[in-house]
């Protein structure tokens, strides 16, 4: 037995000597000399080679240590420790000798943070909502409102994929970018079809956590059919489910049963109190200067506050940093121009625009003369103008400052001539806003934004009557004026912190100073020999101070479950009265298999401002007023759930949402009260305070890609109000309660030069309060036998007991574009109300004494309206 063992040991020693295996195979240390030559092989291959040649065994967990990364090594008689340092240290892999083996592990935080901006390569315009994604790690983020992104990833990440709708994708190598701010410039594409989006991106697209949030691309706005040739971001939003655009032709937004004052409309972060021109035909937002628009109708992030129903967050262009260019257009009733370019190339830029209608020139001097060739008739003048400007300066890679401003005004006048009689009525209303903003990057994960805002809205109406009698004692001169104004001055500091891809934390605080002039009335009477009367009412000024503090966290709990949780805290001081509010916000999003997503949210909103709405006129005579001791702040609670699905190629999307919302401390004028018949009384003595509720469901089917694009939206909704001293305390349908609403929008690219679009809207009739009976004359006679100058008294129905006819309308548009050597020209042909549907604008009671009858007359103001607009881009 011993001879056999001796013989076996001799064979092993002979084999070792013949094969030349180094003696270190049985006894190695950190100074063992090794020779290795490998080109572009995985780390695992290096470990296997060392084990085979030198007997060095490696122990590690495949779930923790990734040895698939490739290396190139050429070492001749190099100490083992030096070799291991060379190949493992770049990948943050630790090694240690435990017993007779080397144990591999990784550093606790082998990460790098990549941050910077994404912009247009031609103009330097920062891109909002661009996707920054790591396909290997399946982690990503989106750029914020200023084009900034921050993404913390494992240090071995090789590259990132950056994509944005309408731009070619970009691959960003990340080696050596740990402490550098990067600028990613994307190249625009001629066709949206050329955008490449990977399947992984589509499944894990970040930034879509809030339900009831819609990004409104400017390209969609400009593709919509245009009323009188003008594209309109507010009209595009009004075509979405859950939103109605007010009365026919009106520019208001009524969202999920709310009123127009419950919408927070922001232009570069500054609130805008009135959003329409020309009685709603145009909006105050020139589409040529709009860069992006986000619309929220539920699941409000905690950074927004002060309104109950919706948020429209519009950002203006920054201005081209490279070249001067612009646009100009002229249509049937308005003209506009926009120019942008660098002041200091790659350092300072500007953008400016101006619009004006010339309806006053078209309507001026339309005086009807009587048989005696004397002036007898009416003249009507109405026009608007607005201007935008924005300056943008880069101080350093970490600091940037913006200034933007807006000013707009509407003027509407009626004048009646009847020989010696001369009656004039004037309406003026408009907005002024200003924004000063400073962006600062503290470090790659912390972004800050300091803002100063100013906003003002004014409304005034004046009336004069002049009778030039032959006898001066019979002469009459009456003058009246009504004036209202609201001003906001805002200071705010916002922070955005991204510790890792799973968390984006936003927090900030601010202060708002509100100044209200709810409605000052001035009356003058210099008639005949009477003593002159010159007096004013309601010239009180209310000052309110609002403070706010918020924090929110977008948290990817798992790859399928995302949460947006936040808290908005605010307080309001007016007339030594203190109100406060704690508003929790929660949004959940869970991804199911086969590209289905379930969402739900709960939001609590508070509003310290009120709008007194005058129901007897469609002019913007509404008054902004603060909460007082008699009228408390409004608040709402909204719960919504939804489910959506995206097709595998991202061409189609489908969504269904349901919501329930309650509102408290909503206000409305008491019966028989309005803004014009309450001189001398405080406004909070004229209103009723009550509660409201709204609920319903919304469906949206959308085609996002291809030459044919568009959407179909349907809304089924209920909205009610209840006041203790209105309608006998019974609940009634709110004046914007619309049971059914259908919106169909289609755009089609025809060849390279033509784009056609169509939109069709159908909506149920609005609630109406109408008379159901008439009182007899004062002397006991019938109304028809009474003095013709004696008004007939009506017995009104319960509040909003009747409804108007259903409304529907088709709008069409076609745009022809041709590129010249130095500019691009386009012709836009549009048809508003293409089949001339006579939709009701308002109803009035008509008394025909000759026929001894009274009836409801329906008034329509917007018939079939064709238009043509010529535009150039240079």
Layout of SSEs?
Blueprint: H1 2-19, E1 33-42, H2 43-54, E2 57-59, E3 70-79, H3 80-88, E4 93-98, E5 101-106, E6 111-120, E7 131-134, E8 139-142, E9 148-154, E10 159-163, E11 170-173, E12 181-186, H4 199-203, E13 213-215, H5 218-223, H6 233-238, E14 243-244, E15 254-255, E16 263-267, E17 270-271, E18 276-277, E19 282-283, E20 290-296, E21 310-316, E22 325-330, E23 334-344, E24 348-357, H7 359-363, E25 376-394, E26 399-418, E27 421-443, E28 446-467, E29 476-500, E30 503-525, E31 533-537, E32 542-556, E33 561-574, E34 577-592, E35 596-607, E36 609-612, E37 623-626, E38 634-646, E39 652-669, E40 687-703, E41 708-723, E42 732-733, E43 740-750, E44 754-763, E45 767-768, E46 771-774, E47 794-796, E48 802-803, E49 807-819, E50 824-832, E51 842-848, E52 853-859, E53 865-873
Parallel strand pairs: 2-5, 6-12, 16-21
Antiparallel strand pairs: 1-3, 4-5, 6-9, 7-8, 7-10, 10-11, 13-20, 14-15, 16-17, 18-19, 20-21, 22-23, 22-53, 23-24, 24-25, 25-26, 26-27, 27-28, 28-29, 29-30, 30-31, 30-32, 32-33, 33-34, 34-35, 35-38, 36-37, 38-39, 39-40, 40-41, 41-42, 41-43, 43-44, 44-49, 45-48, 46-47, 49-50, 50-53, 51-52
